[in-house]
Design goal:
The structure is a single chain. The protein is of the alpha/beta class. The chain has one domain: FAD/NAD(P)-binding domain. The protein has nine helices and 13 strands. Strands 1, 2, 6, 7, 8, 9, 11 and 12 form an eight-stranded mixed sheet that branches. Strands 3-5-4 form a three-stranded antiparallel sheet. Strands 10-13 form a two-stranded parallel sheet. The N and C termini lie far apart (about 70 Å). The chain binds ligand 48H. The site of ligand 48H has 30 residues, from helix 2, strand 7 and helix 8.
């Protein structure tokens, strides 16, 4: 009997109210943010962690109930991940254990690596809206992305006759497309004839990883791309089940986003009338 536990008297209504109020407060706060990242795979989580560590108001939107994207599993349903040097230094930063498989190639456990990255992003203060699917973007006159249009993921799974549920919009200074191979946001802009989308090329690790990191950045006013979406956006080779470029791309997206926010801050300051 020494192990018995007596819980507090909080009841059903208290539990419901606690969830409702906390969710509503957070959504209200993040209706306007500095950066919205769409996609919670390794690149989106890295970008979100970096921006949150830098003290930025950043929200990550993920259509699934779980975060991590393809980072839980390496390839062919085998839950081991690889990274090539120098990306093992990021594993060090996250406290993810790994073995050296061969010179400059490291292997880690997928579940351990993925859960550590998610925890690090949450610890840094990244806010997350899960079960939320990007539907569209807010596009201002003159052609600048100024927000995301989102809906509950289950709305898309409903039968057509009961899906008349309008999405909602969240405003932001910068959107990052981290939706992986699909590059969902760029696809929306491509459908409107605003960008070209060549799609990613065949596998060639040596050519791919450096290029993905190099091309990580702004692709349209107010829109950046990181991770596998970079390969889709620029027609780069795919790299298969190795994740160094995804982690480094997210890290670069942080630096690029901070530079964009700083330029925007200077522009607004310089445009303000002198008192
Ligand atoms: C909300 C969405 C939407 C949407 C998608 O695929 P990911 O893991 O993406 P990356 O770029 O961080 O990592 C890519 C890597 O996992 C990979 O596939 C590699 C290295 N492939 C190499 C190769 O050769 O194939 O994660 C994307 C996330 C997922 O969690 C999706 O659920 C989410 O984005 N997502 N979220 N609204 N419309 N579309």
């Amino acid at each position: 009997m020494g192990n018995s536990v007596s819980f507090s008297s909080a009841g059903e209504k208290d539990i419901t109210r606690a969830i409702l109020r906390s969710f509503a407060e957070q959504l209200d706060e993040y209706v306007e943010s500095e950066v919205v990242i769409v996609g919670g795979g390794p690149s989106g989580l890295m970008a979100g962690m970096g921006l949150a560590r830098a003290g930025r108001k950043v929200l990550l939107i993920e259509r699934n109930n779980y975060l991590g994207g393809g980072f839980w599993i390496g390839g062919y349903l085998m839950n081991k991940l690889t990274v090539r040097a120098p990306a093992h230094l990021i594993l060090d930063d996250l406290g993810i254990p790994y073995d050296e498989a061969t010179d400059g190639l490291y292997v880690a456990d997928g579940p351990h690596a993925c859960s550590k990255l998610i925890a690090a992003a949450c610890d840094a203060g990244l806010r997350i809206l899960s079960m939320t699917t990007l539907d569209d973007v807010v596009l201002r006159k003159g052609g600048r992305v100024a927000g995301v249009v989102v809906n509950w993921t289950p709305v898309n799974a409903l039968p057509r006759q009961i899906t008349c549920v309008d999405p909602i919009a969240l405003e932001t200074q910068l959107v990052i497309d981290a939706t992986g191979h699909d590059a969902c946001i760029l696809r929306r802009l491509r459908d409107r004839g605003l960008v070209e989308l060549p799609d990613y090329g065949s596998m060639d690790v040596a050519a791919s990883e450096d290029a993905v990191v190099e091309y990580t950045g702004q692709v349209f006013p107010g829109l950046m791309v990181c991770g596998m979406a970079v390969a889709t956006a620029h027609g780069l080779a795919r790299m298969g089940p190795t994740f160094g470029a995804m982690l480094e791309s997210g890290k670069k997206a942080t630096a690029e986003a901070l530079a964009v926010l700083e330029r925007e801050r200077t522009r607004v300051r310089d445009a303000a009338p002198v008192a």
